[in-house]
Amino acid sequence: MKRLLLFLALCLSAFGQKFTIDQVMSAPFPNQMTAARKAQVVAWVLNDHGASNVWVAAGPEWKGRQLTHYQGDMGMPLAALTITDDGKTVLYARGTETNGEGLVANPTTQMKLPKQQVFSVDVSSADEPRLLGDMGCNEEGCEDIQASPDGKWAVWSAKKKLWMAPTDGSKPARDVVQVRGDNVDPRWSPDGKHIAFVTDRNDHSFIAIYDLDPERVRYVAPTVDRDEMPHWSPDGQKLLFVRRNGAEQRLTLIPLHPEPWGIWVSDDAASADRPTAREVWHSTKTLAGSLPWHIDECLHFLAGNVIIFNSEQDGRSHLYSISAEKTDHPQDAKLLTPGDFDVESTTEKPDASEIVYTSNQWSNDRGDEDRRHLWRLKAPDWKPEQVTKGETIEWGPVMTSDGQIFCLGSTATTPSTSYRVTANSREMLAPQTIPADFPSADLVTPKQVIFKAADGTTIHGQLFAPKGQTGPAPAIIHTHGGPPRQMMLGFHYSYYYYNAYAANQYLANLGYVVLSVNYRLGIMYGRAFHRVANGGARGGAEYQDLLAGAKYLQTLPNVDAKKIGLWGGSYGGYMTAMGLARNSDIFKAGVDFHGVHDWSALRNYRWDSSLAAPDAHAAAELAFKSSPDSSLAGWKSPVLFIHGDDDRNVSFTETTNIIQHLRKQNVDYEELIFPDEIHDLLLWKDWVESYRKMGDFFQRKMK
After folding, report:
1. pLDDT at res. 8
2. Which of 15-29, 32-46, 550-564 has the lowest mean pLDDT?
């Protein structure tokens, strides 16, 4: 052991390691920024070494301060952060969602299982948070906490019901809606008298309205289709929602099918016993017209009866507007954001007169395709205006009533933190949260690279070259998960990929050239790139993007072409396993985080059922052929598997099964297993241990 430690120390010294994995992962991660609608207050969550807490800042000073004081790396995240309109109270859920067995995650192996609970806390006092609900939440967690307009009540969904409690904690929560179905997505009307929500009945869903006085539930224009995403008009008289087709049995599995959808408006939702609805816009019936994957982040009912939404009907995710006024037939939508880029998310000003959105629009700097910047649309002309620009990244914007914009942001070498956007720049709200020894000066600024796959598809990547490199170095390819994700030229807005970006910096710090490949099926390069007919279980076409990345690296003079490894998590774990199974001649070692290894085991191929899809058997065969398990005979390279056995996204069986096969082939494998951990590791120390073990593995197998 002493000889091994000495050898590793010499390796680190020889390749000029300047910082540790603990240091590059030491900066707290901000998320869930929210703003009060009628006060100068913003709030956000900060995950610091595994302890998540609420932070707030108030005008005019806008100095961030910690509001809650939870301690310890206990695997207890905060979710569904909400602030009342008056800015006096913050609401949130603490703890993880339940798994398929109804159990909350317990990665610290507590003798008594932890719970997911709903709390409120006063912004201006030092009082402890008040417990509002102690019943646990469903598999999606307490993601729908909503405060009433007067700030006195909170409503959320849990255990397929809607629950309500006074925000002052004076009474325990009670279940106010127990109608059949999974009842989710509650939305208060502006006058606080009604709550619209979705009741999911599996093969169809309704928009329902719960009236508080007298108590009753009404359904809005029920049909056999799926109605979802209710939004009240600013005056509270109308209600819009999205309608898409109900479930269809015996639908073929292999080809992609269009998913047409429409926007509907109920004019009498606030008062009628049986509210009616009319269609104001309908998509095309083409693949491009299908429901966008992030429509729920881009749908707004604004002042002046203006509805803004996103569609990919022209091949990119753009914002469009229509009127909610009565017409004889559905309208044509007006394109608001033309160009060769995608809009990802939006937020509205409290008075519903303005929209701020994030996109990867670029003009002179093509690197912005792999960043995010803020843009705004104002009534009445709704013309795009750029808010932020440069080699920075911004996301999660919110607006206060006076039009000030706040967001989260980062750069290539500055970790994510909270900002107030000024006329010419952005100001940190809590600079004290960035550790003094965070190694910004030692991080590399990745370079945007663009290359072609074998079929001519354009692929983007970020290239990390080690500082002070003097000769050819081994290289490592990283592939993200999802796959509807995009790695960027800086610290990421998602905690999972924030950590992955830090890991890529760490690998570069160890002396590796690192290429993060944004393969097809990812987002922000257009719908045709994102929705590939022969991708994933339908053919694995994205694998050629991984090979193209390897060939690109082999052309670089600073890369040792005979020493290329790869790593990735979830879908990136699938890509890693594909590389090792199909091309161990190229990829000399790999680290597979909770990867998918057999598509046919994940999909519901019930070809023995009378309701099976006509091509179910062929689809199962194609899915297996598109999986690493179909090519295991060619797997020769060493691999490190990392997985938590309470994974709710990718079954732990995926790792259990593949290891049994590799054992029979005498493949060199190692494993790092976390009992009771979930997919997106809850404990900060588990992330650190994973990446430290990954660095050690590559050092031993590739250097």
Report:
1. 43
2. 15-29
Residue 101: per-residue pLDDT: 72
Asked whether residue 587 falls in the same domain as residue 671, the answer is yes
Q: What percent of the chain has pLDDT over 90?
A: 86
695 and 573 in a common domain: yes
Q: How many CA atoms lie within 13 A of 696 on its CB side?
A: 18
- Break the chain down into helix, strand, coil percent, rounded to 5: 20, 35, 50
Q: Please check whether residues 550 and 677 belong to one and the same domain.
A: yes
- Is the pLDDT at 424 greater than 90, yes or no? no
Report which of 92, 141, 134 is spatially closest to residue 114, judged by C-alpha positions: 134
Do 609 and 466 share a structural domain? yes
Same domain, 387 and 310: no
C-beta neighbour count of 57 within 10 angstroms: 19
- Look up the domain containing 610 and give its range: 2-21+437-702
Phi, psi (deg, nearest 5) at residue 380 = -95, -10
pLDDT band for position 365 (50/70/90)? Answer: confident
Give the pLDDT band (50/70/90) at residue 611.
low
Cα 500 from chain centroid (whole Å): 14
18 exposure class (CB count in 10 Å sphere: 0-12, 13-18, 19+): middle
Number of domains in the chain: 4
Q: How is 488-523 classified by DSSP, letter by letter?
A: -SSS-SSHHHHHHHHHHHHHHHTT-EEEEEE-TT-S
Backbone angles phi, psi at 234, to 5 degrees: -55, -30
pLDDT value at residue 364: 83
CA dist., res. 93 & res. 132, Å (int): 10
Question: Which positions ≥6 away from 214 have C-beta within 8 Å?
Answer: none
Give the Cα separation of 473 and 563 in Å (integer).
Answer: 8
SS3 205: strand
> Do 682 and 618 reside in the same domain of the chain?
yes
Do 411 and 491 sit in the same domain of this protein?
A: no
pLDDT tens-digit readout, 241-299: 999 999 998 889 999 999 999 999 999 999 999 999 999 999 999 999 999 989 999 99
Claim to verify: residue 91 and residue 166 sit in the same structural domain: yes
Residue 121 in tokens = 């806390």
Instruction: Name residue 703's beta-bridge partners.
Output: none
